[in-house]
Amino acid sequence: RKNTDKLPPDKLPSQEVVRMLLREVRRPLDLPEGMAEGIQRRKMLIRLRDIAIVEALLSSGMRVGELVRLERGHLLYDVKGAMVKYGKGGKDREVLFSDRAWTAIQSYLRARHDGTQGRALASLPVFSRHDRGAGDRVLPLSTRSVQNTFVDLASRAGILERFHLTPHTLRHFFATEFLSETGDLALTQYALGHASPATTRIYAKTKREDYRRAHRRVFG
Question: Most buried by CB count within 10 Å: which residue of 53, 73, 172, 190?
């Protein structure tokens, strides 16, 4: 019988893998001279969007399916968070972002200049496509495109050969960090939007970073 009461170690990114991912996504653009202005703008928007996506997933624990369905009207400005409207099981829940994630989201949205669309701003996706096929339309991303972005970032950062990085592994990272810091299983369950505490309990047994820190304190 498959053991489902703990998260396999290969599903949890280390602090170092997360640092490598952040370093790569934040790398400044190196655009060749003479590149068309429209292409430059698309590349700039993709970079700002991808920074916002990584920071948002890291600090909120959202599922990638929830992230791509976020609309601008779901953002909660008073608490720097968002209302997840289409969560698993059809339950709405509030998620919070770190200051860095919130700043990244706002920088990206400002750069988009959505007001020219003629559509209600509140109904536009927070994270949109910037490929040539989308043109000037504000179209939502698919979960597959976010997954492909992670493969691309992991490949460029040199992560691929050491860890299978996906958007969902950042949810595992959030859960273990949050539980480690709070020691509160019920609060972690609430943060993740789990229906059952049994689902959350896998994170109580997977905190390798805590073990390593403790080991360094004792034997380092």
Answer: 53
Phi/psi of residue 79, nearest 5 degrees: -120, 5
Q: Catalytic: which of 11, 168, 207, 213?
A: 168
Cβ-in-10-Å burial (0-12, 13-18, 19+) of 116 comes to exposed
At how many degrees (to 10) do helices 185-192 and 167-182 cross? 150
pLDDT at position 116: 66
Residue 92 has pLDDT above 60, yes or no: yes
168: annotated active-site residue: yes
First to last CA, the chain: 38
Tokens of 189: 């369950």
Q: Is 203 known to be catalytic?
A: yes
Catalytic entry in 42, 93, 156, 194: 194
Catalytic residue among 88, 93, 156, 207: 88
Select from 155, 177, 181 the least CA-distant residue to 166: 155
Which residues are within 8 A (CB) of 135 and not within 5 positions of it... i.e. 6 or more apart? none
Among 160, 188, 170, residue whose Cα is nearest residue 56: 170
Q: Is 105 exposed, middle or buried (0-12, 13-18, 19+ CB in 10 A)?
A: buried
The answer to whether residue 151 scores a pLDDT higher than 70 is yes
Half-sphere exposure of 120 (CA within 13 A, CB side): 5
- Of these residues, 47, 72, 74, 171, which one is catalytic? 171
Structure confidence at residue 1 as a pLDDT band (50, 70, 90) = very low
